[in-house]
Amino acid sequence: MGEVFLTRRIEFAASHRYDNLKFSAEENRRIFGKCNNPHGHGHNYTLEVTVAGEPDPLTGMVLDLKELKEILEREVMQRMDHRHLNYEVPELSGKIPTCENVALVIWALLEPKISKGKLHRVRLYESPDLFADCYRNAAAGPDAVKGQERRR
Ligand SMILES: [Zn+2]
User: Fold this and answer.
1) Candidates 16, 35, 43, 99; catalytic one
2) Which of 34, 113, 132, 150 lies at a CB distance of 3.0 to 4.6 Å from 100, suitable for a disulfide?
3) Domains of the chain, earliest start first
4) Nearest by Cα to 8 from 89, 126, 110, 145
5) CA of 62 relative to ligand 1 center, distance in Å
6) Is 35 among the catalytic positions?
7) What's the pLDDT tens digit per position in 97-129?
8) How many angstroms separate the CA atoms of 28 and 26, rounded?
């Protein structure tokens, strides 16, 4: 038997604002540009979750898809869909809710919940041309790698 990478994709909508209290108002505007606008703005996020494993000989499945769907519903949708990421997601408190940081938080939420197969990759699209990846890295935990960036 061989290893297979199985990916499930979900979408959610959320708003955010980039603002670091350690910076002055002017620095925040300079560093974050429009993303610093006081009232925030929204994105339609697409999340791809990839689990690696060998198909079970009896079911042909790497993991129970219904269970994965429930995990994504509970850990991601209920926490983040139609939320303001700065104020409503405790896991992000004190962090700038960039695509990179949101992907890392999602990894940390999902990783312990995947009991069959192993979480291999979390890819979060903030827009069709910007995404962040977290991959399993045995020594150092997941790394956030920024995808192509044109526009936030
Ligand atoms: Zn944004």
Assistant:
1) 35
2) 132
3) 4-146 (3.30.479.10)
4) 110
5) 34
6) yes
7) 999 999 999 999 999 999 999 999 999 999 999
8) 5
- Using the mean position of ligand 1's atoms as its centre, give its distance from the Cα of residue 114 in Å: 29
Is-contact 99 126, C-beta < 8 A?
A: yes
Token pair of 144 as six digits: 């956030």
Phi-psi region of 94 (alpha: psi -120 to 50; beta: other; left: phi over 0): left
> Which pLDDT value is given to residue 3?
94
How are the residues of the chain apportioned to helix, strand and coil, as percentages rounded to the nearest 5? Answer: 35, 30, 35
Interval between CA 61 and ligand 1 midpoint (Å): 36
For the chain, counts of helices (H) and of strands (E): 5, 6
